[in-house]
Amino acid sequence: xxxxxxxxxxxxxxxxxxxxxxxxGAAVAIFVFCFVVSIQEGLDRLTSNExxxxxxxxxxxxxFCPTSSRLPEDYARQIEDIPGVKDVMPVQVWxxxxxxxxxxxxxxxxxxEKLRNARDLTLVSGxxxxxxxxxxxxxxxxxxxxxxxxxxxxSFSIGDITVQVAGVFSSPIPSEENLIHTNLExxxxxxxxxxxxxxxxxxxxxxxxxxPDVVATAIDEKLKSGPVATTTRRKGAFQASTLSDLLDLxxxxxxxxxxxxxxxxxxxxxxxxxxxxxxIKEHAVLQTLGVRPARIFRLVIAExxxxxxxxxxxxxxxxxAILGWGSLAVGAEGVTIAFxxxxxxxxxxxxxxxxxGLLAGLVPATQAARTQIVNALSQP
Amino acid sequence: xxxxxxxxxxxxxxxxxxxxxxxREVDLDIHEGDFVSLMGPSGTGKSTLLNLISGIDKPDxxxxxxxxxxxxxxxxxQLADWRAANLGYIFQTHNLIPxxxxxxxxxxxxxxxxxxxRERQQRVELALEAVGLSDRxxxxxxxxxxxxxxxxxxARAIVAHPxxxxxxxxxxxxxxxxxxxxxxxxQRLNQELNITMIMVTHDSEAAQIxxxxxxxxxxKIRELSSDERATAxxxxx
Lengths: 380, 237
Known about the structure:
The structure holds 2 protein chains of 2 kinds. Chain A has 2 domains: about 1-45 and about 245-375, no CATH class; about 60-230, no CATH class. Chain A has 15 helices and 14 strands. Chain A has helices at about 5-15, 15-50, 50-55, 75-80, 110-120, 130-135, 140-150, 185-190, 210-225, 235-240, 245-280, 280-290, 295-325, 345-370, 375, and strands at about 55-60, 70, 85-95, 105-110, 120-125, 135-140, 155-160, 160-170, 180-185, 200, 200-205, 230-235, 330, 335-340. In chain A, strands 1, 3, 4, 5, 6, 7, 8, 9, 11 and 12 form a 10-stranded mixed sheet that branches. A two-stranded antiparallel ribbon of chain A has the order 2-10. Chain A has a two-stranded antiparallel sheet with strand order 13-14. In chain A, a hairpin with a 2-residue loop joins strand 7 and strand 8 (about 160-170). Chain B has one domain: P-loop containing nucleotide triphosphate hydrolases (Rossmann fold), CATH 3.40.50.300. Chain B has helices at about 45-55, 75-85, 100-105, 115-130, 145-160, 175-195, 205, 225-235, and strands at about 5-15, 20-30, 35-40, 60-65, 70, 85-90, 165-170, 195-200, 210-215, 220-225. In chain B, the strands form 2 sheets. A 6-stranded mixed sheet of chain B has the order 6-7-8-3-9-10. In chain B, strands 2-1-4-5 form a 4-stranded antiparallel sheet, covered by helices on one side. In chain B, helix 5 runs parallel beside helix 6 (about 175-195). The radius of gyration of chain B is 18 Å and the shape is globular. Chain B starts with a strand and ends with a helix. At the A-B interface, helix 1, helix 12 and helix 15 of A face helix 2 of B.
């Protein structure tokens, strides 16, 4: 098969403009497909990582936006007494936008020593000491820092909140890198907050043998008689529920992704079919020289596969580059989904484009392989 | 024993309500080293006979046997393999692959054979030398004259060392001078390399280079006698 490689490559180069247009069309479509897949991947990472499954979020019952959930801070002590609970971290959440946004800023205020134990954060600049000692200091997620151009030592203001950036952190959980962590008291006592002794949610960490759902039920049962009723869910379920409006959009975007794949299929199939119809006589000549119909079939499949693969690799590379450099995230109601490049995404983009290329070549290749030699040779 | 044995070969076509029978129970033997020219008026089935010998068309009746292989009973894939190893085809309109160089066009048929790259290279170089185009190896068909293109087509037909070379009006699209050069080349290949050649032609002058001249008329083949050949030669000169 490789002996015919010059014929395949030169054949593709024969109609440069057509080939380039098809490759660029495939690239754009696969780029969009990869982007859609990265949103899905981000959502999966957010809702199905171990932290999301083994951590509970206690939120005010029937409340969704962080600004509307107001739980007593001392619920933490009551929750800590429940069997299976290892630690409770009260969190005050502030966000600049409760609706869906591509540039959402979310502050999480919590006691620094609890945050350090609860989250797997690594400071890439700055130090914990400064963060723990200064009430208005904050550590900023790497992605939000890149997106907003924030670096350690600067002050960062949004709305009526101003923090001193004590450091920039990375995290194995991509969405975590879109958060800004500050001191709980700083957010509670900020101007106009009216949140002394009140938090948005409690983050509950469990012992290794605890059943999250049993503990969640126990928490809600215990706090039912308190001043504010609660809804406790696994963190992943809580995030999925919080993002429910976005989930519909993501589901719809999924179909757009499939539509893009269909578009590539149609585009490459059309181009390959045109190419085959231009070369009916040439395929008859090849058969006359001794090329088997099955080999003609494979040559056409190789052409369509390469067309699609070139486009797919371009689209996938572009998507990975933009996802890598762009620090993109979409969020709603204080929860963010991070878009990240991944090996899985690269493989999926490549495999989908190669598979679509092979599929797109089936009809043209069959047509080429079935060429009736005598009739085709008599064509002008 | 003949290299090519044609027995009771018939072929018919339908053209609307009309049934055309270009070949009717044709019998023919062609021996190794023969140079056969096949003449006849348009539409008498010369090319059809060539296509049947080449296995690119199927007869309605009869058999074609080449070197003990009954070509008419082979499948499409078997025929392709057989052609790659045993048959060279020279087209009237050259039919070179436009995106390939002269070298690559000539190499094309032997890519199908189990030959090492070095041997393929030697064969291509020898074939190009035989047709006098060694210096045009890197040229594309668009950079060649009609005569040069046909010589590339001839090199392509002989590069696999086939048992039989068939030529369908090889000089039909060439001017007189180029046509003569191609005729001389075919004659030389037949004589020097002992290649068995079957050539369809309209041109009685071109037919003179053959060692045997056949006339196809009303579905039957007839071999010209030496008197008829002499007369034909006088007419053509």
